[in-house]
Amino acid sequence: xxxxxxxxxxxxxxxxxxxxxxxxxxxxxxxxxxxxxxxxxxxxxxxxxxxxxxxxxxxxxxxx
Length: 64
Description:
Radius of gyration: 13 Å
Structural class: alpha+beta
Order of helices and strands: EHHEEH
Helix content: 55-70%
Largest sheet: 3 strands, antiparallel
Number of domains: 1
């Protein structure tokens, strides 16, 4: 079974960005996350949704 929740560090690896950028995206509300007690986790589906939004923005900007 694939992981449903990833640490911010794991999410950063999947997205090929830095850990601090993941926290920035979470803080800006651009990347969904959940808290389990004091731990922050990023739902795997949130990564796919984030990438989908990036692709849509790119396609919209290219259509001009």
